[in-house]
Design a protein that fits this description.
Length: 472
């Protein structure tokens, strides 16, 4: 270690999403200071590491250098809430809050949709009273958090996203905006709340956590699992799982009891012929490629579509095949029967594509919400559904996660992905407790197509236990 001038302290500062250790420098960061995270930056003559290591780095450096260490990283300000209009937490919510607090105010809370994860988050905000950044997956959820913070705390939070850059001690943003701007705002918050945390481990979005010095972190989700297995990274991006509430534990108590009804339908003769022909085109193309290149994947096919006409032809065949599944005529007939069966009740319809959602909307003269639907129109549709101005609302994926949906006890899934996460979240849209009302989710599946396999994968969730098979 080089001799230090005691008049020049070792200084820790925030620099564009990283920490800089400047001043008279030791040749290496040794025991207790997480040596593996520090890298010498010859451009500025200082040690540098990612901002996520602020808590452990500050503690180790303070212990090592004592009075010779100075922390110049901006400290989060305290927040005085104008009001606290919060509901009394239920037993499981109190357990979740206590577990997160006991875990050093870092960690994940995993609770089924409809059990009040947002109320737990508000309780952490009320308890910590510190500058907070809430990160949501989409703009709709960002604005929803803004409205709910205003209602609960009387605080007009800042917004970063949707062409707005207004940072306040309490701010809401999206994952995409957070990782883009965290180099500028990463040192201003003491608490990070990641709503629908399973979005965070993405290649770029994880920087929303890595580039922040926030010492307190809370992740919320009903389904942390990802197809790429990267949910394991949430342990160091946010903290380990602090509390997990099993779905079956709250079925019929906190959540409404419910039935899952699987309705099989068949393609008509023309649809089946088109589907089979498209399947052969895709299957034969992939088989031929895999003879030449073992391990050839769908992603490889997509990369070749710009230069290989055969690859482009196979890709078009795949999308046509998928369209036949999504827009099967028999699904519309079954949907009409379900509408008649539940006449007068609020019904949510989840389509597998925008085209099918629009087709349902036109066929039955009901409103639809899609990813590109303007914000004002979305709010107007949701408010009209809540008032009972119309009893059916159609969406593709926009209502899958977190968005507050007015009370409904019937949902119909006529298309979607294979993920158990999407299946569980769609079911959660109709499980909010309302007296003794029982909820019903219909899953309409085309027989003799890939939809059957996707349906099986979705039903791997414990929420889909005891699924009933029925023809309508």
């Amino acid at each position: 270690m080089m001799d230090r001038n005691p008049q020049q302290p070792i200084t820790l500062s925030f620099d564009r999403g990283t920490l800089l250790l400047t001043g008279p420098q030791p040749r290496e960061i040794s025991s207790g200071a997480e040596p593996s995270v520090w890298r010498w930056d010859a451009r500025v003559g200082a040690w540098r590491c990612e901002a996520i290591h602020y808590l452990s780095g500050r503690t180790a450096l303070s212990r090592r250098f004592g009075a010779g260490f100075r922390d110049d990283v901006a400290k989060p300000v305290s927040v005085a809430w104008p009001k606290q209009d919060l509901p009394e937490l239920r037993a499981e919510q109190k357990e979740a809050l206590a577990a997160w607090t006991k875990g050093g105010r870092r960690g994940q809370i995993i609770m089924p949709a409809g059990t009040g994860k947002t109320e737990v988050a508000f309780a952490t905000m009320a308890e910590t009273q510190v500058a907070t950044l809430v990160v949501a997956p989409v703009r709709d959820l960002m604005y929803q958090w803004h409205r709910r913070i205003l209602a609960a705390f009387g605080y007009d939070a800042g917004i970063v996203g949707d062409n707005t850059f207004d940072i306040k001690p309490v701010t809401v943003t999206t994952y995409d905006s957070a990782y883009i701007h965290m180099d500028k705002m990463g040192a201003g918050f003491g608490l990070l709340i990641f709503d629908e945390e399973h979005h965070l481990p993405g290649k770029c979005r994880r920087e929303a956590a890595i580039l922040s010095t926030a010492t307190m972190r809370l992740g919320l989700t009903a389904t942390p699992e990802r197809s790429d297995g990267c949910e394991a990274d949430l342990d160091w991006l946010i903290g380990p799982v602090a509390y997990r509430l099993p779905f079956q534990q709250v079925r019929g108590s906190t959540l409404a009891d419910y039935d899952v009804v699987r309705v099989p339908v068949a393609l008509d003769e023309r649809e089946q012929a088109t589907y089979d022909q498209c399947s052969r085109v895709v299957r034969h193309f992939l088989a031929a490629r895999r003879k030449e290149m073992p391990g050839y994947t769908w992603q490889d096919l997509c990369k070749e579509t710009g230069k290989d006409p055969q690859a482009r032809h196979a890709q078009k065949a795949y999308y046509l095949k998928k369209s036949v599944e999504d827009r099967a005529a028999e699904k519309l007939r079954v949907l009409e029967d379900i509408f008649r069966l539940h006449y007068g009740q609020q019904i949510l319809v989840f389509a597998g594509s925008n085209a099918m959602a629009v087709e349902v909307s036109k066929r039955f003269l009901v409103p639809t919400i899609l990813s590109h639907t303007p914000k004002r129109e979305r709010l107007a549709v949701l408010e009209g559904f809540a008032r009972g101005a119309f009893t059916v609302l159609v969406a593709n994926r926009v209502l899958d996660e977190g968005v507050d949906v007015p009370e409904a006890k019937v949902a119909v899934v006529i298309g979607g992905q294979a993920s158990t996460r999407q299946a569980t979240q769609r079911l959660g849209r109709v499980l909010r407790k309302s007296g003794s009302s029982r909820a019903t989710l219909y899953e309409v599946v085309c027989e003799d197509t890939k939809e059957v396999e996707r349906s099986r994968k979705r039903r791997q969730s414990d929420a889909y236990e005891r699924t009933v098979h029925r023809r309508v």
